Amino acid sequence: MSQISNLFLSIGKPVKDEYGRSVGRIISFATTPSGKFAAAFIELSDGRFTKQPMEALVFNGADVTFISEIRSKAAVFCDQIPFIWRKDQALKDLAEKRKINSDLYQELHNSFSAVLSQLRKDAQIILDDAAQGITRCQQELSALSYGVLHLELEHEIGKISDDTYKSAFTLLQENIKRTNNEKTDLEVTKSKLSNILLGDSPSMPEKKTTIFVEPVAEAAYLPEPPVVIYVKEVGKAGI
Questions:
Q1: Fewer CB within 10 Å, N- or C-terminus of the chain?
Q2: Region 3-20: what's the mean pLDDT?
Q3: CA nearest neighbour of 137 among 216, 190, 97, 96
Q4: Rg of the chain in Å (alpha carbons)
């Protein structure tokens, strides 16, 4: 009962994604006849509504975080596909050792093969979504870099005050940092899921990078925006 009370206290609370961007706010919950929470109704920042399964949300006190569907589903596939594959291999070993008869082996093997085939098809969809997400992040980073460039230019010629410049630059830097983190996570997800689909052991990058952009003083601007980038290690990346 305390869990139900605590979650209902989340109604009206803001929802953010894993990178701190505003998603919307909790409006209501859907529960089963037994009282189990099944889904949350969220008013999105643009005024639309969406219904999301509870697995897509993390509740930590007053903080509500929306988990990327790509990363959450990829994590499931990265667990399930190797697990089913290992069971099928164990089944084959039992058959070779004549611990089960051939008819039973074939029946179970066909079942495992069908499950693996469907999992791989579903995983390929997520893989394609991850690739599209990476492209989107690259486009956003390009636009943000040009935003920095034009902000620098307007500030340099006195069109923008120092206070306005600092405030705008901070916002741009925060968005660059978030988008870079999202792009890195998507790349890690894509790499791991690709390895799983190829039947290889997944390898995870050891480090995740956060990118900060500092103002460029007295720079000669070229067609591509001159942005100074510092890379800081912030820990392991994972799904």
A1: N
A2: 84
A3: 190
A4: 24
User: DSSP string covering 206-221, please?
Assistant: S--EEEEEEPPPS---
Q: Which amino acid, one-letter code, is at 172?
A: L
Domain edge (last residue) among 10, 33, 67:
67
Element (H, E) at 41: strand 37-44
Q: Is the domain of 135 the same as that of 220? A: yes
Beta bridge partners of 40: 29, 52
Residue 94 backbone zone (phi > 0: left; psi -120 to 50: alpha; other: beta): alpha
The first and second tokens of residue 117, run together, are: 């085939």
Interatomic CA distance for residues 183 and 133, integer angstroms: 7
Residue 34's pLDDT band, with cuts at 50, 70 and 90, is confident
Tokens, residue 223 = 């067609």
Taking the mean position of all CA atoms in its chain, how far away is CA 206?
A: 18
One domain, residues 154 and 50: no
| pTM, 2 dp | 0.71
Q: Alpha helix (H) ranges present in the chain?
A: 2-8, 69-96, 102-156, 162-198
| Mean pLDDT confidence for 40-65 | 91
Residue type at position 164: T
What is the chain's length?
Answer: 239
For the segment 180-191, what is each residue's pLDDT rounded down to a tens digit? 999 999 999 999
